[in-house]
Amino acid sequence: MFGLITDSAKNFTDHFLQKNEDIIEVELKDVFTRFTNDVLTSTSFGLAVDSFKNPNNLFLDMAERMFNFASGIGKLIKFNIMIQWPALYEFLGLPVFDVAVNDFFEKLVEDTIQMREERGIVRPDMIHLLMEAKKESVKEKTIDNGKYEDTDTKNLQLTNKDIAAQAFFFYLAGFDAVATVLCFFCYEIVVNQEIQDRLRAEVEESFDNCGGAVTYDTINELKYFDMVLQETVRKWPPLFAMDRVCTKSFTIEPKVPDEQPVYLEKGTTFWLPIYALHHDPTYFPDPDIFDPERFNPENKLNIKAGTYLAFGSGPRRCIGYRLAFVEIKTILFHLLYYFEIVKTQKSQIPIKIKPTSPNLCSRDGFWFAFKKIRR
Is 210 assigned to a binding site? Predict the structure, then answer.
């Protein structure tokens, strides 16, 4: 899939390089959303969609409908009912998404599978992987004492509807989260110019070493990039919190005299406060300071297990976080090689968070500019 991501990253930078202006003001959430849309339609559904040449494409329209389901107080209440009391939500017959959204993606996948089977088309994307998985048998895995154990082998028996659901979730999970992380990453390297300069030096050295032929290994070797990215999702995690289910009964013993023990019964759903953990000075000193050195090889070893949860932890860790990191680093590699990211009169520094959003986002947008680097 790396080639598909690179194609979208090059298309992104080419779009702005072709403009006559040397300084191009942009709203980052808008342009990065278009980028993630192009990547995900390509890697999830096997379709080439240029959201810069065609800004009103159907995928962006469907994505807007998807993410509007949890905006506003009323919709947030509905969303919380769905998470906390799924049986009640189902009983009330409340749809998770617009029916038109579900129908669109299901028909898209049905048509894509049919065309590929009839014409023998093979493409390195999610649809192909799921079509291959449909043919295979796999070992079921259970978790016992925190370890995976193989049980029976069985056929997955995936239907086309199952494949559509998985591709849809892949698209949903990566669409807003990646664009949001990109926005906060850029915000921090504008505020901290020395970090942007060091990143660009790493990019330029890497670009020269590979002769401009950027590969998956090129991206993985960007060590300082990794540090800045991990600090970005530490300070600005994609989710405020995440829910988990106890797999066995457990008692949280009091640590100080005024506390009471908390008993969690097996099957209990509870919330992990990611943002609170990431901003607790007990675990991350001076948590409001953006400091990538927290994640250098030496300091990273001192981070207490279970306190850094940007993408979860353990067997339930976000399955797509590695792909998300590659996607983020690839677009920023190309962007920082050709442009400096600078503030404008519309830039909001310090940033103000939108209070009614289910995840972190700017109240007034991420207004910055791409300044062309002349070489």
Answer: no
